[in-house]
Amino acid sequence: MTSKKMLVRAGACIAAAAVLSAANAVAQQPDLSRIPAYQPQYKVTGGLRIAGNGLKGDVERLVEGFKKVQPDAMVSTNFMTSSEGALGMMYAGVSDVATMGDDAKITDMMPFYNTYGYVPTEISVATGGYEKRGTLWPMAIIVNKDNPIAHLSVEQLDDIFGSERSGGWAVGEDDAHNLLFTAKYARGPERNIRTWGQLGLKGDWAGQEIHTHGYVAPGFAINFQRKVMHWSTKWNSNFMEYVEVKEAPDSAEGRAVSSDRMLEAISKDKYAIGFGAMMHVDGSCVNPDGSKCAAYPNVKVLPLSRITGGPAVGLTADNVANRSYPLTRDAFIYINQAPGRELDPKVREFLRFVLSRDGQEIIAKGGIFTALPANEVRAQLSKLQ
Fold this sequence. Notes:
The chain is an alpha/beta fold. The chain has 2 domains: 3-25 and 134-321, D-Maltodextrin-Binding Protein, domain 2; 32-128 and 331-384, D-Maltodextrin-Binding Protein, domain 2 (3-Layer(aba) Sandwich), CATH 3.40.190. 28% of the residues lie in helices and 17% in strands. It has 13 helices and 16 strands. The protein is globular, with a radius of gyration of 22 Å. The two termini are 42 Å apart.
């Protein structure tokens, strides 16, 4: 791609007319009345084994609700391994349903694929929270408050944070539900965005290098790689890595790489960009020692569009709940559904309950995650056919 074409493509990011304000973006909480109530299609008897992450108590609450409408079901739960062992329990043959507080990684899926010859089926059962710790909060894209950039696209984030690559992972995209690495997601160095001028900024900004920062704890970094970089592990060579305070030692070296240091760096460096948590930006979180997190008024969070030139959506609680913000996260359940074969009816019935109005009301009342919008419920139910 020529630099002229690149500038035209990237220049869309400062077209203020494309930005949707919170007032005119679709900003409604999911309407649960649009989701059908649960109607049993199969009488569940005998055992149903669930293992993985308890989703902050939501799984147990869903099991209790399910047993009220399927009183002969004998449901056992095991949350000892949390998300990290969820798929392992399934391909070891000791569970029927894998609950996960984050999306499965390639390393989670590969042993399952090697066992069965296909990847597990991924079902979203809830949208992550907005800014509370432990609620699968979305990625905020953060720049210095003096940066004139108005918004960015997910494609541009790939070009900024990523690098040239020979391909990317495609998970379950073919009819056989295979785990594939494909040149479909290859890109060359000509797509690398390394200066603010390539994003349309003028004057003193034009030739300045973009300094990239972000979280590298697996749940955060791999989710960003999946959503933005097609699972690629090739980062911009200047990428600076940070973790939450609890994930670093209580020493000078540990504090140097905590999430607060990233926000301090962006506060002082007008050419920096990073991805992190809104709760750290606005100081709404609580530190492990019980103290309130510091706020960072010298940074700003950018609206995002799914494609370059498309309407950009701000990171607000409502835009997370209605899933219009592109970098939301999901609470997932994984199931063993062989291509071309019927799903275990006990498993299907449990998921039908979770994706019914009854199940989504349980999630909504739990107050940790957000119920799915009706259109997303339909999309997830279609995977059970």
